[in-house]
Amino acid sequence: MIPLSNATLHQLPVQVTTPRYDRQKTTAGIAHLGVGNFHRAHQTMYINKVLEREGQQGWAIVGVGLRNTPREDKRAAIMAEQDNLYTLTAFAPDGTHETNVIGSIIEYVHAAKDRAAAIKRLTDPDIKIVTLTITEGGYYLDAEGNFTLDHPDIKADLARDVPETAFGLVCEALRQRRESGTGPFTVLSCDNLRHNGKAARTAFCTYATARDPILGAWMKENVTFPSSMVDRITPSVGAADITRLDALTGVADQMPIFAEDFTQWVIEDNFCDGRPELETVGVQFTDDVGPYEQVKLRMLNASHSMLALPGVLMGYDTVPHAIEDTLLLGHLERFLAEDASPFITPPKGVSLAQYAQQVLHRFRNPAVGDQLLRIASDSGSKLPVFLTDTVNGVLGSGRDHWRLAFGTACFLEYLRGTTDKGTPYTITEPAINAEQLALARAEDLATGLQMTVFAGWNLKDHPDFATDVVKIRQSIRAQGTHKTLAQHAG
Ligand code: CS2
């Protein structure tokens, strides 16, 4: 097998498509914070195509890793060894696949190892856009959408001379750009959040104002924060996946990734310092991302959670395995049609019934085999984003809330860390501290609903929801998740 680097690009097997542009002639116009698998399967793929087009060579990407972890150290080392190249294999539901070497990241900065270097990179006048995938919880917003300045991470960062968070790095770079006359860049959130542009604006401008009110005011005036809807199912990559993917592609890539063949990116056209011609490579531009985002978050992401939480308790491992269970499939179909859809205003021309079918078709993709534990992870940040509007819509209109109570009960039971059969699994919940976890695990099963996860849900006016959650939790413990669902469905 051939190792991956600039020098070996021309030797790769024919079934692997390599960049059709000269990487040496590209320069970075975008800095991306949080170079995880999703970014490497989505934005980088679009930019890889844009770089082929005439006059677009100034839009390559500088990747910025933020975390100070061994995983990040490893990523930075591999990126250096492979000249920032990696393979992306896209699988269609019928098993056909296509591999591309992605060349659009041309530089990688390990910010945790050298904060000052990262800030300096962001002050380069060629950097016109800073994009973000820092996760749902990474914006430090409370249930009302306010930035939590009193959060220990943010307090600590505000006290540092050289900041460490995404907010600190970006605001310090913008401060220097303002002072030197370089001017602003666009900050583009690519995270699954409601109104992610507005959320990013609130987070970054509040942070900046706390550091320096003049900078905060200047950012509000000059920096744009377009909203965007991003979509592509991108599973985690374990050691066995690396072996499998490398055998398939014939490339000894140390950090290959894979994804479904479906991909979508809808962006509000509001860039303060120019943008790549992404509309030429399949990106949709619009004045209002809201309807696209509602559909995606409340249907795809929410049904992912509504499947993963009971699925984990039932002992399933992947999405296609869980959805083969007709009980879970029927549950999702009804959730999509009867709970989520009635409260969504879709974009013109989009049929929610068809979208629901497409979501389930994507979930069935056996080659993707997305892990339920990946989806369940960080539910503490995800559920408020994916379910709040649906829960409030259902409760407010007096519709049947059982499926949502079931999802909630499954979330609280999942936080115990063992399946119905007692098999332990690791929960990854960065937004749930020990105090919050204790609420979920309290003996009185209603206590879990006091968690801040539910702060935006209008539960006070609907005590019957809490009663049902408790009953369902008791039933899950007494007879298992599957039977509990079967009894209701039957
Ligand atoms: C998933 C998403 O993590 C999750 O909860 O629902 O990662 C999902 O796969 C992507 O948003 C798809 O675009």
TrEMBL record:
Q: Which UniProt keywords apply?
A: NAD, Oxidoreductase
Residue ranges of the Mannitol dehydrogenase N-terminal domain?
A: 29-279
GO molecular function annotation? oxidoreductase activity, acting on the CH-OH group of donors, NAD or NADP as acceptor
Q: Does the keyword ATP-binding apply?
A: no
Q: Which segments constitute the Mannitol dehydrogenase C-terminal domain?
A: 288-471
What superkingdom heads the lineage?
A: Bacteria
- SUPFAM superfamilies, per the entry: 6-phosphogluconate dehydrogenase C-terminal domain-like, NAD(P)-binding Rossmann-fold domains
BP GO terms, sorted? mannitol metabolic process
PANTHER family attached to this UniProt entry: MANNITOL DEHYDROGENASE 2-RELATED, MANNITOL DEHYDROGENASE DSF1-RELATED
Question: What's this protein's name?
Answer: Mannitol 2-dehydrogenase
Question: Species name for this entry?
Answer: Acetobacter pasteurianus NBRC 3278
| Gene (name only) | mtlK
